[in-house]
Write a structure and sequence with these properties.
With about 500 residues, the protein is an alpha+beta fold. It contains 10 helices and 25 strands.
């Protein structure tokens, strides 16, 4: 027999009540959460004013901002890490910003697009195949960018074809085009051997070459276009030519290098007229010739030569083949920074304006010029290039009676500098062979270093100097024409638009 105490009686009554009213024990989820969860503390009362910032209150109980997270940590590194965890800056990849199949990676207040191999840009919006860095944008000559789109340009004497990429000659004697082959008859704009007639119709009109030059600067705001040493001097005399600068080359076909020019003195001793050539040069237009500056300096290093002329259309120096024309020089322009005494081969270039225009023909054609980046690219990537001249066939040997040509590869700059004790400046580059007996030699100075790109020849260098000729471990050194393009273009009459510098 169990004695029921008043306390047990009271407890039993409680449990009996629970059994009788069990359905009242359970309540809805919403009501339970209201009882069991404590209120969130953000923005309540004086919580945020009186208490120190708290991570749980700021970023777990609500969606915090970067500013609120920074107040908690008081440290940028920890803030950035936690914001990535708690999503304080939101999902930067929603909606997806990447184009052309790019994959988006969310970051703190930023995102990164991982692009497919053929696209680039922040949002993978740039198709690389349509950029100047890939195959020159498909352009025959010069490539520019306008509003992220490729724009092609042409050298003087050319126009863009229907595809807006191909450059088509506008006349029979456009620059850089060799018209001579085994079955081609020579052509000329004028009748041969007329030296004083009006020849303006044969001129390449550089004065109207306006919009193309605009592209040749680094940046042009008008159209919003973005474009992608001295060794020991020679002792020159009238009896011979020992000027540094073809050994191991081949004879050129007549008319194969129609821009080749010969610079010579006229020897009238003993009652005769005999040409004494001393340097080479290149024809830039019907009135402009470019050569090496040191060719125009007398042995005293001060006096500029005046007693010379230029001959175009030459092949065999012992024969009159009907294509040769002699021209006097009216004006000489040596590059302003050239200093014969300080460094006779640095900035080694000069321009000659002819007194009479050249009668352009298949044997007398100018070579094309190009902007800096274009020339730099083709001389390195389109190598080998072609050098030519009537220089000595070996060091201190006889000169060649016929025009010689030689293919030479570009030499990487470090190798170039290491090959010589002489100073190789930024205005120079090397080309040639380390062991093959092939090189430019004495008498070739001032002549062309030409590079062919998509059927057009461009002047990329000027034969300048070397240590002997075809010597093992030594190369020919050339003036880097690309560095002087703007000066040349302005001097010969290409007009540039006004631009902010």
């Amino acid at each position: 027999i169990v004695k029921i105490t008043p306390q047990m009686k009271s407890t039993g009554t409680f449990y009996f009540s629970l059994l009788c009213f069990a359905e009242s024990v359970f309540t809805s989820q919403q009501s339970a959460n209201a009882v069991l969860s404590r209120p969130r503390r953000y923005n309540s009362g004086l919580e945020e004013v009186l208490k120190k910032d708290n991570l749980e209150r700021e970023c777990k109980e609500e969606q915090c901002t970067m500013e609120e997270a920074r107040e908690c940590f008081e440290n940028d590194e920890k803030t950035c890490f936690m914001c990535a965890v708690f999503g304080a800056d939101g999902d930067q990849c929603n909606p997806p910003p990447c184009q052309n199949g790019g994959v988006c990676q969310d970051g703190v207040n930023s995102y990164t697009c991982w692009c497919q191999s053929s696209f680039s840009g922040k949002n993978c919006e740039i198709e690389l195949a349509q950029q100047c860095s890939v195959d020159n944008g498909g352009c025959s000559h010069f490539c520019g960018l306008k509003e992220q789109q490729v724009v092609c340009f042409c050298a003087p004497g050319y126009e863009l074809g229907p595809d807006h990429k191909t450059c088509t000659p506008t006349g029979p004697f456009s620059c850089g085009r060799v018209n001579i082959d085994s079955g081609t008859k020579s052509r000329s704009l004028l009748t041969p051997r007329t030296s004083n007639s009006d020849q303006r119709n044969s001129s390449l009109d550089y004065s109207g070459f306006d919009f193309n030059l605009t592209m040749f600067y680094e940046y042009y705001e008008t159209d919003n276009i973005t474009l992608w040493y001295g060794p020991k001097l020679r002792n020159r005399t009238r009896k011979g030519n020992s000027d540094h600068r073809i050994v191991g080359g081949d004879e050129a076909t007549p008319g194969q290098i129609p821009w080749q020019v010969r610079v010579a003195l006229m020897d009238r001793r003993q009652g005769g007229d005999r040409a004494l050539p001393f340097c080479g040069a290149s024809l830039l237009s019907d009135v402009w010739v470019i050569t090496a500056a040191h060719c125009l300096i007398e042995k005293d290093g001060i006096t500029i030569r005046n007693d010379f002329f230029v001959r175009v259309g030459e092949h065999d120096v012992h024969k009159d083949e009907g294509h040769e024309r002699d021209h006097s020089v009216s004006v000489k322009y040596i590059y302003p920074n050239y200093n014969y005494k300080d460094s006779p081969y640095d900035h080694d270039l000069a321009l000659l304006r002819l007194s009479e225009p050249v009668q352009l023909s298949d044997h007398r054609l100018p070579i094309c010029l190009g902007p800096k980046h274009f020339l730099e690219t083709i001389v390195q990537e389109s190598s080998p290039s072609l050098v030519s001249g009537w220089g000595r066939l070996r060091f201190q040997g006889p000169e060649s009676p016929t025009l010689q040509k030689l293919v030479v590869p570009y030499v990487e700059r470090t190798t170039c500098k290491e090959s010589s004790r002489e100073r190789i400046t930024r205005q120079m580059f090397c080309a040639g062979y380390t062991s093959l007996q092939k090189d430019s030699c004495q008498g070739d100075s001032g002549g062309p270093h030409a590079t062919k790109y998509k059927g057009t020849w461009f002047l990329t260098g000027i034969v300048s100097w070397g240590e002997e000729c075809a010597r093992d471990g030594k190369y020919g050194v050339y003036t880097r024409v690309s560095h002087y393009y703007i000066w040349i273009a302005r001097r010969i009459g290409m007009k540039a638009r006004n631009r902010k510098v």
